User: Which sequence fits this backbone?
């Protein structure tokens, strides 16, 4: 039986990515465009619907996979809370299915990325692993036998909101000292800018300045690594994974980032068994690739 084509969308706070997947499920023809969240939640939703409709007209897919950040109820296909998009209780599946007249699979972006890494990425052949993208924020997918654990309230894996520095920087969630206020790519750039007064600095810039010995960059980078190690050590103690797969922008610094993370985690583990800490293989496309797999899965269940 011929496996039909699907389209996949990853609706992020900064960019929206889309691609098409053929019979083998592999993502190709990936394109991206700015989310423009500053225009408001309705504008983001309408722009995404419009682009999805154009992709559907071009590729004639049999199904669509959509992943979004925040709190996602996969069962009902609802974006319960996607703060970066301004979405609250948005019926994503219903809205896109009605506009596109196609079956729609909806998931959390990191859990979908975990599915992709489990099937064709760095989590392949691993029974239990954590997929941890470190980018604009920090989250985790707890993967067991190739499937993500969503949690009772669809919030499993909110690693970025572990309070690891009590009384630390204010987090948008309302708490202080959450992991992502110290260790995310956004936090690295922000904290360097605050310390130096330089604007327009990215986490990638900070990583490059670490290599030159810039003392402020070294300090900010070291504090981010130490904070991430605290969060990962807690997660490892709770879930006992075989691997930890690190994705997102900071992981692109490769061993300059991962080697000190491994060392810092090792120093914190105590009685816990040290897992392999490895870079993700799918990069920024993990969520979109996962959306494609989930769309194919949806068609398989309907067959």
Assistant:
């Amino acid at each position: 039986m011929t496996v039909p084509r699907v389209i996949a969308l990853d609706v992020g706070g900064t960019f929206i990515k889309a691609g098409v997947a053929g019979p083998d499920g592999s993502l190709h023809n990936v394109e991206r465009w700015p989310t423009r969240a500053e225009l408001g939640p309705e504008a983001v939703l309408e722009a995404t619907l419009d682009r999805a409709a154009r992709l559907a007209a071009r590729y004639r897919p049999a199904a669509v996979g959509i992943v979004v950040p925040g709190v996602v109820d996969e069962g009902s296909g609802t974006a319960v809370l996607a703060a970066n998009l301004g979405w609250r209780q948005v019926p994503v599946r219903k809205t896109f299915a009605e506009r596109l007249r196609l079956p729609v699979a909806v998931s959390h972006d990191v859990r979908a990325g975990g599915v992709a890494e489990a099937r064709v990425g760095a989590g392949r052949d691993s029974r239990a692993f954590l997929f941890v993208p470190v980018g604009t924020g920090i989250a985790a997918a707890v993967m067991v036998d190739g499937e993500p654990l969503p949690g009772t309230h669809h919030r499993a894996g909110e690693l970025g909101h572990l309070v690891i520095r009590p009384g630390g920087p204010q987090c948008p969630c309302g708490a202080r000292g959450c992991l992502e206020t110290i260790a995310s790519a956004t936090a690295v750039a922000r904290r360097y800018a605050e310390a130096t007064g330089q604007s327009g600095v990215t986490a990638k810039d900070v990583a490059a300045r670490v290599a030159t010995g810039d003392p402020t960059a070294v300090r900010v980078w070291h504090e981010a690594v130490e904070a991430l190690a605290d969060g990962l050590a807690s997660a490892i103690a709770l879930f006992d994974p075989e691997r930890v797969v690190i994705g997102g922008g900071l992981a692109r610094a490769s061993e300059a980032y991962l080697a000190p993370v491994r060392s810092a985690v090792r120093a914190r583990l105590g009685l816990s068994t040290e897992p392999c800490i490895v870079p993700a293989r799918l990069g920024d496309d993990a969520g979109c690739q996962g959306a494609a797999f989930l769309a194919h899965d949806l068609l398989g269940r309907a067959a």
Observations:
- The domain at 124-280 is CATH 3.30.420.40 (Nucleotidyltransferase; domain 5).
- The radius of gyration is 19 Å.
- The chain has two domains: 6-109+284-302, 124-280.
